[in-house]
Design goal:
five-stranded mixed β-sheet, four-stranded mixed β-sheet, 13 helices, globular
């Protein structure tokens, strides 16, 4: 087993993520390619300076526009909204892999008395009227129901019947999200939008163990390098330590992942076998490490395991959106800043859509960062790209650079 330095581990991850060197993802095709590589990107409806999925793509896809993700989801139907790491966006071609997930959802739905009658009413209505949101579906009242997509919560708490029925049918795979307006979802029947060869495809995973192995492999590919340790990068897989180790050993024996040690860190790390050439380039010093600056989304795959970020980069990050204002150290929607192979700071921005202004509310550099002309010039260029991404016409600095 080879041993690499922390800097080499950091460089490998950033290269794999497409955040250093020349852009390897370009425009709409590149956005789709990156989602395929990551397996999934997390969806979050909060839009301060772009939604999380849009921010994830803008940081590594040259020429990315928000409309490109909308087209991939709701026009081209190459991507789909569905559960994976929380509510996510992933390639529609992966639909067959989640058939067991949908089967479990149907089994759970069968335990709710009277839900089947309401489901038929909803399907009949959508068949006749097209895409519908919960406030448009003519099903009144409340029911005691809880989606398999969200395991936490009070099972005894009643929820609006219309929303519950739509979410159950959606989790079952009978419905897909037709489009969104803000955080409101509009649902339509899956067969209208997913090709028959995808809808009717047999699950490539023969059992739950192989499905879990596929998901672990996918999460490793999303981050680039993951350790044999309890990790939020595995969120939603509900893996205990012994089960995780068993899967990692199995994937290693099958030649699908490669173990590696990182100096000064005890757990073993793993990367996908197809990325071995990239690892060799990093070790040999032949990798393209041309520095770029990017603002990173709070739920970006790079940030899935904040303990890993701290171990490799010595960068501590907390998303303070749910932190009371008086207790925030930085800002409501602060984004980490990557420059070259380092985290150099964080920035808090907000878009005034009425005025078309990108406002920089806060900017904090790491203590060991030298404020050079190159750094300042790169920040200016990155802010201008961010301004264009957010359809703004100007930048207003509310803090000192």
């Amino acid at each position: 087993m080879i041993t690499i330095t922390r800097q080499q581990a950091a460089q490998f991850i950033l290269l794999k993520q497409g955040l250093i060197g020349d852009y390897c993802f370009n425009k709409k095709e590149g956005a789709y390619e990156y989602v395929c590589q990551a397996g999934c990107i997390q969806y979050d409806p909060v839009d301060v300076c772009g939604k999380n999925a849009e921010l994830t793509l803008q940081s590594r896809v040259r020429g990315f526009k928000k409309s490109m993700l909308h087209e991939l989801l709701y026009k081209d139907r190459l991507l789909i909204d569905y559960a994976d790491k929380e509510l996510s966006i992933w390639p529609a071609k992966d639909w067959p892999y989640f058939s067991s997930y949908r089967d479990r959802s149907r089994e759970l739905g069968d335990t709710f008395k009277g839900l089947d009658v309401l489901e038929k009413q909803a399907v009949d209505y959508i068949e006749k009227n097209g895409a519908v949101s919960s406030d448009q579906l003519p099903i009144k009242g409340e029911i005691f129901w809880h989606s398999s997509m969200h395991w936490s919560g009070n099972w005894q708490k009643p929820s609006p019947a219309a929303r519950s029925v739509l979410e159950q049918l959606y989790t079952d795979g009978e419905l897909v999200i037709h489009h969104k307006k803000g955080s409101r979802k509009y649902y339509d029947l899956s067969y209208k939008y997913l090709p028959k060869d995808i809808l009717n495809a047999k699950n490539p995973c023969e059992d739950e163990e192989s499905f879990m192995s596929w998901r672990v492999l996918r999460r490793i590919g999303a981050v680039g390098l993951l350790w044999d340790k309890n990790s939020t990068a595995f969120l939603g897989l509900y893996l205990k330590a012994d089960a995780r180790k068993k899967i990692l050993d199995k994937l290693t024996c099958e030649g699908r992942i490669i173990p590696v040690m990182v100096e000064g860190i005890k757990p073993v790390f793993y990367y996908r076998t197809e990325d071995d050439r990239l690892m060799r380039d990093v070790i040999n010093g032949s990798a393209d490490l041309k520095p770029r600056m990017s603002f990173i989304a709070p739920l970006d795959p790079l940030m899935w395991d904040k303990s890993l970020i701290l171990a490799l980069w010595d960068f501590s990050y907390a998303w303070e959106i749910y932190t009371p204002a008086v207790k925030r150290k930085y800002g409501y929607y602060t984004l980490p800043i990557v420059f070259g192979d380092r985290f150099v700071g964080r920035i808090d921005t907000a878009v005034d859509r009425k005025e078309g202004v990108l406002r920089v509310k806060g900017l904090w550099w790491e203590e060991n960062v030298r404020r050079t002309k190159k750094l300042n010039d790169t920040l200016d260029k990155t802010l201008k790209r961010f301004m264009i991404f957010n359809d703004c016409k100007s930048i207003e600095m509310l803090t000192d650079i």
